[in-house]
Amino acid sequence: MITRKKTKKIIVGGVGIGGDSPISVQSMTNTDTRDVISTVTQIKGLEEAGCELIRVAVPDMDAALALRSIRDQITIPLIADIHFDSRLAVASVENGAQAIRINPGNLGGPDKLARVVDAVKMHKAPIRVGVNSGSIEKHLLKKYGYPTPENTRSLIESALTNVAALEELGFRDIKISIKSSDTLTTIAGYRELSQQTEYPLHIGVTEAGGLIPGTVKSSVALGILLFEGIGDTFRISLTRDPVEEIRVGFELLRSLRIRERGPEMISCPTCGRTRIDLFPMAEEIERVLQTMKSHLKVAVMGCVVNGPGEAKEADIGIAGGHGVGIIFKKGELWKKLPEDELLPAFLAELDQMEQECLKSSGKE
I need a surface site. Which of 19, 52, 72, 137 has the fewest CB within 10 A? Predict the structure, then answer.
């Protein structure tokens, strides 16, 4: 049983972070924020996949001004990611950002930070104090050295010093992140930080890599931390379509039995008995499941010999044969069809079961 550490609760655009709030899954767009149409299109795709908060880069004033139009067209909270320029932070909240991600120490000094704090107070926008291994102040690196799994003091002190600067200005709607691209440094750093603060923590591995290495590194680091009760929101950082980040994020929560969103899919790894092109079929089913809300258990199996038996707990499953395949429910044959009719029939029945589940639960 996971015992989650109690942290201070903040609200980002109606979504609770910390306290008794569910651990939330978020992502970041990779579009040009100034291109409102492309950015909104990507965010809507992320919303459909289950993304609960979205962050966008704000590199210049045009991007900051675009936030108003973006926010008006989306439903999830909008977070502005700013580096170095306090004017962009102020303009972002004035144009609809419901939170900002900054490193307070690189905004140009106390006066500029004070102007940012005045703006976020006025607009009730929390601040994420974001510190990465690559952005630690030089004097801390000289004092403590570059962060390692054995020594994360530069990361911790950088974050807490920046938090203290906000507290001195009377601001406490804060969450903290101390990301590293190294898995073990990430784990050690957040363990230490969790002991030293009650603020909610945004956890993640930065620059994690592509789909496979990024998923593995993030799942190891975040899985360990979440199992230990550490972390209130997170992003799986991948060099991929950000929708993949959401898919991985919710599967991570499901695997730890922290949260469930949508159906669970089980599938066989295939073997020499497989006589159907299972990989694209599994990918298409997985894509469809990502947009569903019921808690069905769905099986995708390679052969009719062992498939239904191995997946007898599935609400519905599909198994391939030589030119034919079957659809089964709770381990029992439901339909046998030619291969080219198998997937369409399966998806149609899956949709019907989804509607029935939602209707019975009152979520239709």
Answer: 72
- Nearest Cα neighbor of 187 from 142, 209, 218, 166 is 218
Q: CA dist 307 to 79, 310, 315, 357, 363, Å?
A: 45, 5, 13, 24, 31
Closest CA to 302 of 321, 328, 280: 321
- List the structure tokens of 226: 């979440």
The correct CATH number of 10-255 out of 3.20.20.20, 1.10.3720.10, 3.40.630.30, 2.40.50.100 is: 3.20.20.20
Contact between 244 and 277 (Cβ < 8 Å): no
b/e burial code for range 333-354 (CB count within 10 A of at least 16 → b): eeeebebeebbebbeebbeebb
Contacts of 104-107 with CB under 8 Å at 24 or more apart are 104/129, 104/162, 104/165, 104/166, 105/137, 105/158, 105/161, 105/162, 105/165, 106/135
Name the amino acid, one letter, at 259. Answer: R
pLDDT tens digits, one per residue of 137-167: 889 999 999 999 999 999 999 999 999 999 9
For 28-74, what is each residue's pLDDT tens digit? 999 999 999 999 999 999 999 999 999 999 999 999 999 999 999 99
d(CA 291, CA 301): 21
Question: Can you give the pTM of this predicted structure?
Answer: 0.88
Provide the 10 A C-beta neighbour count for residue 167.
Answer: 12
Distance CA 57, CA 54 (A): 10
Q: How many CA atoms lie within 13 A of 132 on its CB side?
A: 13
Residue with tokens 């909270």: 77
> What is the Cα 136 distance to its own chain's centre?
24
Class of the domain covering 264-361: alpha beta
Phi and psi at residue 362, to the nearest 5°: 75, 20
